[in-house]
Write a structure and sequence with these properties.
Blueprint lengths: L3 E6 L6 H14 L7 E6 L5 H8 L5 E5 L16 H7 L3 E4 L2 H6 L4 H13 L3 E6 L3 H6 L2 H12 L11 E5 L13 H19 L1 H5 L2 E4 L5 H8 L6 E4 L6 H13 L1
Parallel strand pairs: 1-2, 1-8, 2-3, 3-4, 4-5, 5-6, 6-7
Helix pairs in contact: 1-2, 1-11, 7-8, 10-11
Bound molecules: 1,3-dihydroxyacetonephosphate.
Length: 255
C-alpha cells in the first residue's frame, strides 16, 4: 500500500523560537502514526537541525529541506548541498515548488539535476508540479503537468521511484484561499498516476504517493483526501498553526 503523507512547508516563516513552539505543539497533539501515515516538516534551512532534534524520537515524523543545490560541493556561495541536508538529519527535500520556479528561475533541467543530487545523497524527493491559472483556463493543464514531470523526473530509473513523492500544486490555489475542487484534484492525480503507469508500469504507479497542495485546510482536507488518487497534502499557510495542521493530519488518518 502506498504511503499517505501530510507535509508542512513553512516557506520563509517561523524564526527559531516560533518554530520550536509550533513543533512542540504539533507533537503534543499528534495522533498515532505508522509507516503508512507520515508527517513531514520543512523548516527554513537554518532551523533544520533544530527541528531534527525535536522530532528524532517521534516515529514517522520526518524533516525536509525546501530546496537543495544542483552540485555536490564547491564554490557556490550561499547554496546548500543535498548531502548537507542529509547530514543534518533531513529525510526529504521539496524540489520544484512553483515559488522556486517563479522567483528563482528554476527550470525543468535544473530540477532534474537537483532531483539526481538529492536521490544520490540518500534524500527522498517531494517533486512539485502544477499549472498557472491561464493554463487551467485554457484547459491544457494535463499537458502542462506532463511536460513538467517528463523533464523533471522521467529520466529516473524505476527503482528510484520508491524515494519520490509527487506534489500537485495548482499555482492558482496556492495561498489564494481558492482550493481545487476534489474532482479537479482527483482528475489531475489520476492523470499523473497514469503517466507514471505508462512510463514505469502499473505497480510502480500504484505505489507512488501523490500529494495535493493549495489552500488545503482542516475544512477541506477530508474531502480531498477521500479521493482515491490523493494520498495526502503539502500544506503552506495552514501548517503554521498547530491546530490547523493537526486537523489536516487527522483528516489523513481518517481517510
Ligand atoms: P498554501 O497551503 O498556503 O496554499 O500553500 C501551499 C503550498 O505552496 C505548499 O507548498
Amino acid at each position: 500500500m502506498r504511503k499517505k503523507i501530510v507535509a508542512a512547508n513553512w516557506k520563509m516563516n517561523m524564526n527559531l523560537d516560533k518554530g520550536h513552539a509550533l513543533v512542540a505543539a504539533i507533537l503534543k497533539g499528534l495522533p498515532e502514526l505508522n509507516s503508512d501515515n507520515q508527517v513531514v516538516i520543512a523548516p527554513p534551512f537554518i532551523n533544520i537541525q533544530h527541528t531534527v532534534y525535536q522530532v528524532e524520537d517521534v516515529p514517522h515524523v520526518y524533516v525536509a529541506g525546501q530546496n537543495c543545490f544542483t552540485e555536490a560541493a564547491g564554490a557556490y556561495t550561499g547554496e546548500v548541498a543535498a548531502s548537507m541536508l542529509k547530514d543534518a538529519g533531513a529525510e526529504y527535500v521539496i524540489l520544484g515548488h512553483s515559488e522556486r520556479r517563479e522567483y528563482f528561475g528554476e527550470t525543468d533541467a535544473v530540477l532534474a539535476k537537483k532531483t539526481d543530487q538529492a536521490l544520490d545523497s540518500g534524500l527522498k524527493v517531494i517533486f512539485c508540479c502544477g499549472e498557472p491559472l491561464e493554463i487551467r483556463d485554457a484547459g491544457t493543464q494535463n499537458d502542462y503537468v506532463e511536460a513538467q514531470l517528463k523533464a523533471g523526473v522521467f529520466h529516473l530509473h524505476k527503482h528510484q521511484l520508491a524515494n519520490v513523492v509527487i506534489a500537485y500544486e495548482p499555482i492558482w490555489a496556492i495561498g489564494t484561499g481558492r482550493t481545487a475542487s476534489s474532482q479537479q484534484a482527483q482528475d489531475m492525480h489520476a492523470h499523473i498516476r497514469s503517466l507514471f503507469a505508462a512510463q514505469y508500469g502499473q505497480p510502480a504507479a500504484d505505489n507512488l504517493t501523490i500529494l495535493y497542495g493549495g489552500s488545503c485546510k482542516p475544512s477541506n482536507a477530508a474531502e480531498l483526501f477521500a479521493c482515491p488518487d490523493v494520498d495526502g497534502g503539502l500544506i503552506g499557510g495552514a501548517s503554521l498553526k498547530a491546530d490547523e495542521f493537526l486537523g489536516i493530519v487527522n483528516a489523513m488518518i481518517g481517510a
